[in-house]
Every structure is written in C-alpha cells, then in structure tokens.
Amino acid sequence: MTSAEDFGRVPFQLRPSSNFCSGDVCAVGEVTMPVQSLPVRDAPLHFRLLQQYLLLLKKYPILTKSVTSGILSALGNLLSQIVEARKKVKNGGSASEIDAAGAARYAIYGLLITGPVSHYFYQLMEVWMPSTDPYCLVKRLLLDRLFFAPGFLLIFYFVMNILEVGHYRLCAS
C-alpha cells in the first residue's frame, strides 16, 4: 500500500496488489496521475483570506467567531453613526462627531457575548434538533425567534447599560 507521504508526489504509483478508486473509476496496478494544483500564494487575495479565515475557524472556532463578531459589531455601529450624521447634514443639521466609545462598547459586546453565546447556542440546537428531523428548520426558527432572540436582546440592553454607565463614571471622575 502507499503511504501518506507518497500521495502528493508525481508520478503516483500503486503497487500491483493495491486498488485505487475515485468516484466511479478504479484502477489496479501501476498508475501515473498528473497532479496539478495552484499554490496558495498564486490564488487571488480574497480566496487566500477566505481560506485563512476558514482555517482559523476550524482550529479556533470560538475565538475566531468572537473576534469576527466584535469587529462586525463595531463596524456596524460606526456605519450607522456615519449614515445618521449624513442624514442630519442632508436635513440641514450639523454633523455630530463619531462616538468611538460607542463602537468600542459594541466591539466588547460582540467579542465577549455575541460570539461565544451564539456559537454554543447553535451547536446546542444542532444536538437538540438534528437535520434529519423533518421539521427541524421550522423548530429551529421558532426556538431562535421566540426564545433566544428576546433573551439575547435583554442581555444586550443589560450589558450595554453597564458599559455606558462605566463609561460615564470614567468621564465624570
């Protein structure tokens, strides 16, 4: 039999006693397989970034999801502030400054709460309602929208309130 080390080499030889099967095609004996692969460094940038992200997601799922959630939460808050400022200017008002502390609060919330809680909740849903269940999609949607979302919204307001009070206490002193 061939070893794992031999698999990436060209030509690839199978010993006479071994079989090689790929889909519907099998070969017995000595086979030469041309192997052509694109080196990762020659791939487009967006493909390499996606590949690296998926690798990190596989190796460190909670940390990767937490950091992603923190970044996206902060960017979402900044984008909403920019849109709101443009709307004020369009209506004749003065543009307000960007609240970097607000974006930081959203980043903290996404990093510490949204990423890990969502990870574990959706994993738990996979266990409770496997995809083999005929109504799993409907059940998951109902569980998510009727129970998880309202509870998550309460946690959001609670944590944001704590973070804002802490911010005001720091500014006051």
TrEMBL record:
The keyword Membrane applies. Its main location: membrane. It is a multi-pass membrane protein. Keywords: Membrane, Transmembrane, Transmembrane helix. It is found in: Membrane. One of its GO terms (cellular component) is peroxisomal membrane. The chain crosses the membrane at residues 142-163. Belongs to the peroxisomal membrane protein PXMP2/4 family. PANTHER family: PEROXISOMAL MEMBRANE PROTEIN 2, PEROXISOMAL MEMBRANE PROTEIN 2, PXMP2 MPV17. This is Peroxisomal membrane protein 2. The lineage of its organism: Eukaryota, Metazoa, Chordata, Craniata, Vertebrata.
